[in-house]
Design brief:
Layout (H helix, E strand, L loop, with lengths): L1 H8 L13 E5 L14 E4 L3 E9 L11 E6 L2 E13 L9 E9 L11 E5 L8 E4 L4 E3 L2 E9 L2 E6 L1 E6 L2 E6 L12 H9 L10
Length: 207
């Protein structure tokens, strides 16, 4: 039979493909070992994104929210800043430490960050001077400059050049050009840009 013929020739090599590109973190089989169809051969981890966890004191929780921008410095790379966003905040405080568990996702395009690394985590908030954030859709490019439209009155908008910093999820940091409390147009900013290029800016309907 075909099975008998294959057995007589020795083991049959069968290519095994991982369902994703990643790093092999565990190898559960060795060369030459007989394994069944359901056997776990290895563990492959996708490191294109990693998670950092931090315990936030009760007094600081009011400044933390899901989707908020995070900056992390790793002991392994002390001169670099890795940017991400908060993905979850525990609903309960630790009864002993009075802290909540916060989890953030970081981009890791070159797979330099590995599980188990230690990090110092900072949270970018709108209340911090020089750390304002706006929706990414609020930023437009006009004549090679990054700009936002600041609402001066219900029918008037000011085109304001800005300097951008880090970005995460759907928000971007404004390093300069915007003051706390100023209202920027998010939905409809592209329409205002089009009107500006046509020389019609002065009346708008986006908020």
């Amino acid at each position: 039979s075909a099975r008998a013929a294959a057995t007589a020739r020795g083991p049959v090599q069968v290519p095994v493909r991982a369902p994703l590109a990643g790093l092999v973190t565990e190898l559960d089989a060795s060369v030459g070992e007989a394994v069944g169809a359901e056997a776990n051969l290895m563990t492959v981890v996708d490191l294109s994104e990693v998670y950092v966890e931090a315990d936030i004191p009760e007094r600081d929780l009011v400044r933390i929210e899901q989707g908020q921008m995070v900056r992390a410095r790793m002991r392994a790379y002390p001169d670099e800043v890795f940017v991400g966003a908060v993905v979850s905040i525990s609903g309960e405080l630790d009864p002993q430490t009075r802290a909540a568990h916060v989890r953030a996702r970081l981009a890791n395009p070159r797979w330099r960050l590995r599980p188990g690394m230690f990090a110092a985590v900072g949270f970018v908030t709108n209340r911090a001077v020089g750390a304002l954030t706006v929706p990414a859709e609020a930023v437009q490019e006009v004549e090679g400059q990054q700009v936002v439209f600041v609402q001066r009155s219900p029918e008037q908008y000011e085109l304001r050049p800005v300097t951008l910093g880090a970005s995460a999820e759907n928000r971007v940091e404004v390093v300069s050009g915007l003051k706390p409390g100023e209202v920027v147009v998010s939905t409809g900013s592209y329409l205002l840009k089009s009107q500006r290029l046509k020389g019609e800016l002065g009346h708008g309907h986006a908020h």
